[in-house]
């Protein structure tokens, strides 16, 4: 490969299936979901059936992955989602979906910076080290920026260590709870469809489903690393299924263990008591870990939450940088973004990602906004809406592409993508209708459980991914000088 080529392509052959899985599972941060989202899904949603809800959502995303992975044999691109949409619905729609994807991945990294800073400030204060949340966020920012400038396999090794520790701690805790509470294993309460959908999609079931979908954000990033994988046509599909399987298994097993440990009939009351009405959801899993494993596990988990957040920061830093790289290579952003450094990292994409993060951290700090209640909840809610919206476009695009070109079975080309599109449209409705609860931007605490009840800021944030799509479509339409590059971008 010549010097120019080495600067305009990502370094090939750096990642295998395991490396990609490390990035993706780390991005999903299962320990953060188990300590944050699951107790709220139980309390405000469908109680013990939250365990079944996470299993249901995992199966839905497996259905989505049938068509998604079928496209990996046709397209290998760091832009992943928008390349797939572009092949099925045209380059303009591909760019539109790229803008929404960027909104999704940038906001989730911002959310994690807020959570990381808030958690670290509390953790370190117990050791007498008192720094503001934004200082800890910026310390993480420096390390994440430095690591993302290195070869992608260096980041994978770091994430591998952090992810394995996190997964092992969750698995050990879940098994210990089940072993110590065999009489509490109520499969009917947790997995009966009637209980999963209790309260209806506009009520408790809808709330639990919304939180479950939000907890899976990040699994779809497998295809982003296709260009850097050793065998993209095999590595990406395998990594996708492995990632969804690991995430689904962890959430289903550990949340079911929580049901067993607290008792299905008393679960909601105990979750409310332990979490102080949802204000401290992490206390639920920590209580169960202490009573069934030991206080040492609580200490370990409290630090693994921090490492899980850091792993998520690094994973999404890499994902964002590769999206910007693909947009630069396709002529949507300046050409400099489509180049890499000697290590094969998309250096300008890394720089833009870091500049955006630093600017937002500074803004929230100067405004005196809370890193968790504001930065984390606002940004993570946007992410969920943005990524599901793009997944819907991907499912429709898979159907359109194979309908025109063939090359896949009826299951891969038609049944699975259309079924997943329908299910994801339902999920998007639930996420948007419950945006006030997810983001904390309902007009009042009493209105947080009501559908479509948002403050003006809430409406602005929930619609931002779709505004980004429109802007992307317009940019692609007027950017005629780079139309050929844009078509190459989705090939």
Description:
- This protein has 491 residues and is mostly helical.
- It has one domain (3-489): Amino acid/polyamine transporter I.
- Helices cover 74% and strands 0% of the residues.
- It contains 21 helices and no strands.
- The chain starts with a helix and ends with a helix.
- The relative contact order is 0.20.
- Residues 1-6 have low confidence and may be disordered.
CATH-defined topology: Amino acid/polyamine transporter I
| Helix-residue proportion | over 70%
CATH class: Mainly Alpha
Overall geometry comes to globular
CATH architecture assignment name: Up-down Bundle
Query: How many β-strands, per DSSP?
Result: 0
Q: Report the CATH superfamily.
A: Amino acid/polyamine transporter I
Q: Can you lay out the helices and strands and say which pair or pack?
A:
Layout: H1 3-8, H2 17-28, H3 30-46, H4 50-70, H5 81-89, H6 91-125, H7 133-148, H8 152-180, H9 187-191, H10 193-196, H11 204-215, H12 232-262, H13 267-274, H14 282-292, H15 295-329, H16 347-366, H17 371-405, H18 410-433, H19 435-439, H20 456-478, H21 483-489
Helix pairs in contact: 2-8, 2-12, 2-15, 3-11, 3-12, 3-14, 4-11, 4-12, 4-17, 4-18, 5-6, 5-17, 6-7, 6-15, 6-16, 6-17, 6-20, 7-15, 7-16, 8-12, 8-15, 11-18, 14-15, 15-16, 17-18, 17-20
């Amino acid at each position: 490969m010549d010097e120019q080529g080495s600067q305009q392509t990502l370094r090939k052959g750096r990642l295998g299936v395991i490396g990609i899985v490390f990035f993706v599972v780390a991005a999903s941060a299962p320990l953060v979901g188990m300590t944050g989202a699951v107790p709220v899904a139980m309390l405000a949603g469908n109680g013990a059936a939250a365990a079944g809800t996470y299993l249901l959502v995992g199966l839905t995303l497996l259905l989505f992955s049938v068509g998604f992975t079928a496209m990996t044999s046709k397209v290998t691109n760091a832009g992943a989602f928008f390349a797939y949409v572009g092949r099925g619905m045209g380059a303009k729609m591909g760019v539109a979906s790229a803008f929404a994807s960027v909104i999704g991945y940038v906001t989730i990294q911002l959310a994690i910076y807020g959570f990381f800073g808030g958690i670290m400030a509390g953790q370190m204060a117990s050791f007498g080290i008192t720094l503001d949340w934004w200082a800890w966020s910026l310390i993480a920012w420096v390390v994440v920026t430095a690591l993302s400038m290195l070869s992608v396999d260096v980041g994978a090794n770091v994430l591998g260590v952090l992810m394995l520790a996190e997964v092992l701690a969750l698995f050990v805790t879940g098994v210990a709870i089940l072993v110590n509470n065999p009489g509490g294993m109520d499969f009917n309460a947790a997995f009966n469809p009637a209980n999963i959908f209790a309260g209806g999609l506009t009520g408790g079931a809808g709330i639990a489903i919304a939180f479950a979908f939000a907890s899976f954000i990040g699994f779809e990033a497998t295809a982003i690393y296709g260009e850097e994988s050793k065998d993209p046509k095999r590595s990406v599909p395998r990594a996708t299924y492995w990632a969804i399987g690991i995430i689904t298994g962890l959430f289903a097993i550990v949340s079911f263990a929580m049901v067993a440990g607290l008792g299905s009939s008393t679960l909601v009351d105990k979750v409310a008591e332990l979490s102080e009405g949802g204000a401290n959801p992490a206390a639920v899993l920590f209580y169960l870990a202490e009573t069934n494993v030991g206080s040492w596990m609580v200490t370990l988990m409290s630090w693994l939450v921090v490492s899980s957040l850091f792993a998520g920061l690094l994973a999404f830093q890499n994902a964002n940088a590769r999206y910007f790289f693909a947009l630069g290579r396709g002529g949507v952003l300046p050409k400099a973004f489509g180049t890499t450094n000697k290590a094969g990292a998309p250096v300008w994409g890394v720089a833009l990602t870091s500049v955006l993060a630093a600017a937002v951290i500074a803004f929230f700090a100067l405004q005196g906004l809370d890193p968790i209640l504001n930065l984390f909840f606002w940004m993570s809610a946007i992410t969920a809406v943005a990524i599901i919206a793009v997944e819907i476009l991907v499912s429709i695009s898979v159907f359109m592409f194979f309908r025109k070109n063939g090359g896949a079975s009826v299951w891969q080309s038609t049944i699975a993508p259309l079924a997943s599109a329908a299910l994801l449209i339902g999920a998007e409705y639930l996420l948007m209708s419950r945006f006030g609860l997810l983001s904390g931007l309902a007009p009042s605490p009493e209105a947080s459980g009501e559908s479509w009840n948002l403050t003006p800021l809430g409406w602005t944030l929930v619609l931002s991914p779709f505004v980004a799509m429109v802007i992307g479509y317009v940019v692609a339409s007027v950017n005629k000088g780079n139309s050929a590059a844009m078509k190459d971008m989705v090939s």
